[in-house]
Amino acid sequence: MLIDMESHSHQEDGDENRMVNSQEGGYKEQLVIPSCELCDCALIGLDIGGSLAKVAYSLISHKQKNATRDDGGSATIHLASFDTEQFDECLDFIHSRVLAFSNGHHVFVGATGVGSYKYREQLLAHLPNTASLKVSVDSLELQRGLQGIHFLWEHLPRSGLLHPLSCQLTMNRLQFQCPLPKSGLLPCLIASLGSSLMIAKVNSSGQYEALVGASTQGGLSLLGLGSLLTSARTFDDLIHLAEKGNRMNVDLTVKDTAGGNYNMISASCLVSSFGLAAKKPNVQFAEADLAASLLYCVTDQMALTSYLTAQAHSLHNIVFYGSYLGGHEHIIGQIKEKMAACSYVLKHQVNPLFMQHEGHMGAIGALFEQHLQHSQSETHGNQ
Questions:
Q1: Measured at the alpha carbon of residue 206, what is the angle toward residues 70 and 151, in degrees to the nearest 5?
Q2: In the prediction, which pLDDT does 67 show?
Q3: How far apart, in Å, are the Cα atoms of 295 and each of 149, 212, 219, 229?
């Protein structure tokens, strides 16, 4: 099914980067990149993850083809997401909404992500390489995610780039609409929160090094456990259920063990996720409370792992992206609170930044990589 992206939008009314209704009746996100000239071909970036297949594509219109930086030329990138298990729908969408509207231009497709190898044969069967259609597949999802961040950082203003709950002090001292190495952000960590957690270090020149892969921390672990504990069967249903619940009815706190504050530790501080469930085995806990406890538990571990990785490498900034965030302020707020608490207790400041269009960094990076490759081949061909 085409994922309804409308609930994930954090753009203000009137922002040109908004949700627009697609002809198929679902929703796709339209991202306008100001002062940007993409090569004169159709570009498609695919990031095929364990849960979602994310698509970013750009078509060439007559207006775009004749625009220049001097007259305010811009590029439009469309974003869509599909359940990976229904990958055929993703391919059908590419045929009906991208290839059919390529306006006779060449089409370049770049696919990345763990699923790009699982679905490689299916992808190439539906999109065979021809004189006008070229498909490349790689397993460089972290590099493509970084490329997506770099591309958007160079072209978008702060308001269209970072979620408002990002660290304000950090945002105020950074530069935007410039190359990432000149932004003041680097060195930093990037943390991809998707089906699982992946963390990489980015040095001052913008080169990355993969550091952490956490198989028990991510959206699939959350949904798998959530489907065993509750009636929720989709990620968004589980998140919405959690937002209605109160984890304090399930989790064990300092008050439960000490009767109140303990050695300057607040009575509401968590001692053990699901701790009350262990102490009260005959109690039937509400599904919403179980979902709230589970969401807090998984998110807390991802935030802690990210913080400790930053501390171990003496870094102070983390850029978070990935579909797990999904624009959910509940999740973003929890990560931000964990960063602040750890920074205070462990005496090492770590500042969280959250990308907008967070689930599509890899797909946008894959699209941008195709742009770079085609632009370079055109340059060499004209020499």
A1: 35
A2: 44
A3: 26, 21, 10, 12
| 174 shares a domain with 152 | no
Instruction: Measure the CA–CA gap between 226 and 239, rounded to whole angstroms.
Output: 10
pLDDT at residue 131, rounded to an integer:
81
Q: How far apart are CA 237 and CA 235, in angstroms?
A: 5
List the one residue out of 351, 55, 46, 11 whose CA is nearest residue 156.
Answer: 11
Q: How many CB atoms lie within 10 A of CB 203?
A: 12
In a domain, 259, yes or no: no
| Closest of 219, 221, 288 to residue 250, by C-alpha | 288
Extract the residue ranges of the chain whose pLDDT is less than 70. Answer: 1-27, 61-72, 104, 376-383
| Parent domain of 205 | 163-250+285-354
pLDDT at 61: 56
Q: Cα–Cα–Cα angle for 317, 323, 328, nearest 5°?
A: 80
Question: What CA–CA distance (Å, rounded) separates 200 from 362?
Answer: 14
Q: Residue 140 is part of a domain; what is its CATH number?
A: 3.30.420.40
Alpha carbon separation from 364 to 6, 45, 161, 245, 284 (Å, rounded)? 19, 6, 13, 35, 45
Alpha helices per DSSP H over 109-218: 115-118, 120-126, 141-155, 158-161, 168-173
Same domain, 227 and 311: yes
Q: Model confidence over 219-234: pLDDT tens digits? A: 999 999 999 999 999 9
Confidence (pLDDT) at 17? 57
At 130, which amino acid appears? T
Quick one: 377 and 324 in the same domain?
no
In angstroms, how far is CA 117 from the centroid of its own chain? Answer: 20
- Please give the helix or strand (H or E) that residue 369 lies within, else none: helix 361-382
Closest by CA to 56, choosing from 36, 39, 79, 33, is 79
Whether the full predicted model's pTM is greater than 0.85, yes or no, is yes
Distance CA 46, CA 252 (A): 42
Q: Can you tell me the distance from the alpha carbon of 368 to that of 95, in angstroms, rounded to the nearest whole number? A: 20
112 Cβ neighbours under 8 A, 6+ residues apart? 45, 46, 47, 48, 137, 138, 139, 140, 141, 144, 362, 365, 366
Give the contacts of 49 (CB within 8 A, at least 6 positions apart).
Answer: 84, 113, 114, 115, 141, 194, 195, 323, 362
| Pair of tokens at residue 5 | 């992206």
Whether the Cβ atoms of residue 188 and residue 315 lie closer than 8 Å to each other: yes
Listed residue (16, 34, 32, 39) closest to 73, CA to CA: 34
